[in-house]
Amino acid sequence: MDKIGIFDFGGQYCHLIARRIRDLGVYAEIIYEPTNEYKGFILSGGPGDVYREKSPKLPDNFFDKVNVPVLGICYGHQMIIQTLGGDVNIGKEREYGRKMVTLNLSSPLFEGLAEQERAWMSHFDEVKRLPEGFEAIGNTDVCDVAAYQNLDKNIFGVQFHPEVVHTPNGVVILENFLKIANCKREWKLERWVEKRLKEIKQQVGDKKVIMGVSGGVDSTVAAVMLAKADINAHFIYVDTGLMRSYDTKEVKEIFSNLGIKNFLAVNEEKRFLEALKDITDPEKKREIIGNIFIEIFEDNATKIGEFDFLGQGTIYPDRIESAQPSEHANVIKSHHNVGGLPKKMALKLVEPLEDLYKDEVRRIGKMMNLPEKFINRHPFPGPGLAIRILGDITKERLDILKKADTVVTQIIEENGLYDNLWQVFPALIPIKSVGVMGDKRTYEYIITIRAVESLDAMTADWSKLPYEILEEISNQVINKVHGINRVLYDITSKPPGTIEYE
Q: Is 122 exposed, middle or buried (CB count within 10 Å of its CB: 0-12, 13-18, 19+)?
């Protein structure tokens, strides 16, 4: 297969670039050194400043070794210019979020696009001076060099992010780059699944696997993959007390209907709530939850028999936000099944989906004949409601949030909006405000409603729910959930926010 190498500079979207390229039918992988097996290279974004000594750099003499097309994105766009003798420095104004970019349509990189395109920006530094042989082919009202090219060397750069869905025609730019690199489209997800099942079988052999399942899409698809890999796998569902009111019943039904053997459900609510008492730091919450999960698995492994592997439904956004893929990445938030794992544990990991994104996981679920309604369930975080209660977790606050969640979900489903949203949920803000009910003063908690639209969770936009729906949610939450007297609506995109609150 033709391959594209993606250089990882620690950007949140590095592996999203690889995924987009794979979606276009060309195999892409993350690399740190150039070799002659690649038809082209893409340099990712990153959190650093290219002019600082400790920021990640290209390998020495990169452009002397490379004679295939190169595309730089954001930090990579700046790194090319810095490496080849141009100037990069702080811009006159930040650009974050949607911007209109003016493009030079004579460039092969912009074939098929309009002169004015909407693009997603996330930068302060910018290219100030281009090296000899380079020309600007894009600009915004703030950034004079939003894109450039050197046609003699087949080097291109864009300051914006074509890989995210909020650059609507960004995939056209990536597709044009594949044409410039003369790549054949030969990669398919179905082949990846076949290969992954063989790898799991080879990795585990005749050893035993124990896996915690939440009933969510990721862990269920991972469990089915482990079952299809024909290995000795046992599955445990842990009711942490941090689940929604309907989760435990649904999980048991799902695994029963799937015919997955060796399934055990255990109730550990008391254990989790005691450990989380007075804990307010989000990272500490995740660490505690991750550690207890491992303790429970190891306890049950001892009862059932000796286990060697821990199966997990980890997907790539979990690892990205936990800064696991790269030494250059910043930790956004540790996921309990990644950054929350103990540094030392007896079990080795087997993670069937660790290099995939949510929409790819759903496609695999369809391949494996999982029910359509289940596949399209909204993501639910492994730490559960612990990260939807800001600050200290108490039984009272959990009960309030569970009731509010039931109300919100029911309204969204009844109005036919569920499938149009990536996620919708309430979160509890543990401060109280004054209200009035029945001519009496109240002093109760605040609930905030989060509804977002996304394709892959790497970026997300807040959903413009109809006012009448928001009004119904507010009325019913306040009327049906004792302890709430105010409902807010979150209108923050990702970035700068994250989808979950902690």
A: buried
